[in-house]
Specification:
The structure is a homotetramer of 225-residue chains.
Chain A: H1 16-19, H2 23-40, H3 47-54, H4 58-64, H5 68-92, H6 99-116, H7 118-126, H8 131-154, H9 165-184, H10 190-204, H11 210-214
Helix pairs in contact in A: 2-3, 2-5, 2-7, 5-6, 5-8, 6-7, 6-10, 8-9, 9-10
Chain B binds a DNA duplex (21 and 21 nucleotides) through residues 17, 20, 22, 46-48, 57-63, 67-68.
Chain lengths: 225, 225, 225, 225
DNA sequence: AATGAATGAGGATTCATTCAT
DNA sequence: TATGAATGAATCCTCATTCAT
């Protein structure tokens, strides 16, 4: 079975100054940025504010990041990494495999991260200003979709001829459900999320195999790869 | 049946200066703003840029709008009005009524507007910076959902006990589908949109009556209200 | 004895537009200006604010006043007229005449006006921005000083060779006492005012005749004029 | 006897940017601000004007001062420091101590500063727009009053039971005398100032001890503290 | 590697006044 | 006489970034 952290293969390959980061400081900067974003939104994030609160000279920010945009991007990258782990773990740990259980596990994992990394939601759902971030998140959604798609196909949950766009749409649409759920309720409206699971399941089951609907109990699974 | 423009009842009740607009100029300002937003995004929209391109002194902007935010809001209001008309018309014109036909008609109407009012998509999907706009759009989505929900319930397409959140989620999720579709293709990826229709239909049919699935031919409809 | 309103002989001799004022409106404008000044200070007084609150088009302000400055000036003129009346009345009504009784009567009269015309205090003490107003008030203080000086000299309270500057300084200094008194307490710190009377009396008595100190009872006065 | 600079104990404790001032530039900015204020008044002081004349980018102003208000405040602080020194020196240097000599020494010291720091007078007497400045100056007057009051009481010039408000009123009223004196004559009308001294002395002598009136020659003074 | 200082470019908004009607 | 509309000029201030040290 796939190892527990395959979704985001990208190791940081940023421009020069970023290479030799002084770990501690960089982490503090990201934490501060996350807080500020949660408090005031991405649009109001300023280098000065970060520097002041992180107790770092403004000019030093540019030792670790090429520009402001890169700070936000680094933040997103960090949080998304966490999300990847959660998803992979949750899916891996599943006993009975079915479209429903996979969707549910994935969405619960997302919820968990959104919940304790609020800045991520703020950036991703509300402040779509930063082009790099957008690209990155879109890209990530695609990766998640691809991962899940392959997983589900390999496991015999989806019919082999299913269009990959189906998975992508599922992920994107699930994302919007979260957006609605967290907008109404800071810790995620449970009722909305449950309905969202239903929604994604309803869609995907259109492309599911009978086993994908009925569920594959542990023990009787095809060996993958 | 409901008349052809019921979704947005709000008559413009802006602050004083906005009342006596010099129509022509205001329209030009909105057009320019729309262009600039399409080109650079809402976040980079500046009063100066609008004024310059619309060939209007910056100070005059404030004759027609209380502040920058209101310009964007007015723009959205204008476009959304158009959307409302399209939706109501499309649904009203339907011959056979079913969950599928209603969803399809609605989504096609949305697509039509997104297509020739690109600024609207940019604002609504990408730059979630403007609080007033956000509120307005959210509100609008709710209105659309409510309208469709009542329409479908009255027509006997949805089971009477269906939770209204279902319609809201359907609209929101459809919205995201458009976002994906227009992001990949400036005039809206047709394949994605088709899949999106499928997605929303799949979800809503879970709550549909048999007639809602099979379709109600013209002539045999219940008379509403 | 001098009639009850001699201090400010100036009849309004303003530029043309001011001549044909529509009384009612002008009064409302002045009242509104007074309120706004009391609330926000002269520096923050704006034509728009006046116009809005007085329910008069901004442009119409310029029918009655040449410019903003003139509005303030008219306001001051109006209030100062009231002050003159009060002073003349108070002094005229005096039974026993002495430096002390005259000073006291005058200062009490000032206090009365400052008390129910708060805008006047705000303009005169705090916002010394308006040149015309400054000139006007200075001028008025001189007139009051002159009036009192002549009154006191005629009544035999001050030695005939006394320098008129003495009276001017007395008035100015009394004015500052009020400023201090009203700054600490919106309705005028009584203790401070009492001390202020003492202060002015102490100074003026240096130039007083024995009768000016002892007091001239009613009946035994020299007939004036 | 008290050391020569006790009136204003406050060591500059401004917000961060002000800490590491580039001395020369800051001084130039203050000088320019002083000139502009002398020329056009505080109300018309603009950051742009300061920047232009000081040959400093507007943005740089904000390196040294938090905002415009702080520039004026710094200016006043600087001038007032000078005034404190002068007063303390003059009083300390006095040979014969009496109410009259102390008042005279103090007032002469004020005159000296007003004379070669004209901006100070303009700010303090004419443009009462800046709240921080007002607070500061009022506060300063109180400090001066307190200092002189204690000095005079300790020296046995005033009766021990004298109300401190007496000293405050003396200072305020003296201040107004200067205002009148400098308004009529840019270098301070000598006659008015002399009369002003007389005025303050007349008032304070009402609370003086016999020695405070007669004067205490050098050598026979009480040792203080 | 680290940073204090500097700044050009630009931000939104207000205001007193004018003028054509 | 009255006024709606228009506007030039100014306002204060912020920001991301650079650069000399």
């Amino acid at each position: 079975m796939t190892p527990a952290r395959p979704l985001n293969g990208s190791t940081s390959r940023r421009r020069l100054p970023t290479q030799h980061r002084s770990r501690e400081r960089v982490e503090r900067i990201l934490d501060v940025a996350a807080d500020l974003i949660t408090e005031h939104g991405v649009a109001d994030l300023s280098t000065r504010a970060i520097a002041t609160r992180a107790d770092v000279p403004v000019a030093s920010l540019y030792q670790y990041f090429a520009d402001k945009e890169e700070i936000v991007l680094a933040l997103v990258e960090r949080d998304i990494g966490e999300m990847d782990e959660q998803v992979a773990q949750a899916v891996t740990a599943l006993e009975t495999l079915s479209v429903r259980t996979v969707v549910e596990a994935t969405m619960r994992a997302f919820v968990a991260v959104y919940h304790h990394r609020p800045a991520f939601g703020v950036i991703w759902w509300h402040d779509r200003t930063n082009a790099a971030v957008m690209r990155f998140c879109r890209q990530h959604n695609k990766q998640v979709a691809k991962y899940l798609f392959e997983f589900a196909t390999n496991a015999g949950l989806l019919r082999p001829d299913t269009d990959p766009i189906v998975a992508e749409l599922g992920v994107e649409v699930g994302d919007r459900v979260f957006q609605v759920a967290f907008e109404q309720n800071l810790s995620g409206d449970k009722h909305v999320i449950d309905e969202g699971v239903e929604l994604v399941v309803a869609y995907l089951e259109r492309y599911a195999t009978p086993a994908g609907i009925a569920g594959i109990p542990p023990g009787s699974r095809r060996v993958e790869e």
